[in-house]
Design brief:
The protein is mostly helical. Helix content is about 50%, strand content about 0%. Helix 1 crosses helix 2. The longest helix has 16 residues. It is elongated and about 50 Å long. The model has no long low-confidence stretch (mean pLDDT about 90).
């Protein structure tokens, strides 16, 4: 699941330094368990509740 956040945005939302986020992403440092749990819950919520999609003109929601 991808949230589409930059390192800077994840740092802002978690209160961690951007360098810490980069280390997590690159596998040089273990992710804080509290942040990992929060991200897992957030990703599950987003997967279960996808946002609305734009339907092309002349097509209905089924693609026809």
């Amino acid at each position: 699941m991808t949230l589409g956040w930059t390192e800077r945005e994840l740092a802002r939302r978690t209160g961690r330094h951007q360098t810490t986020i980069r280390r997590w992403i690159n596998g040089r440092s273990p992710i804080d368990p509290e942040v990992a749990a929060w991200l897992a819950m957030l990703a599950a919520f987003v997967a279960a509740h996808p946002g609305p999609r734009i339907v092309s003109p002349g097509r209905d929601a089924s693609g026809h």
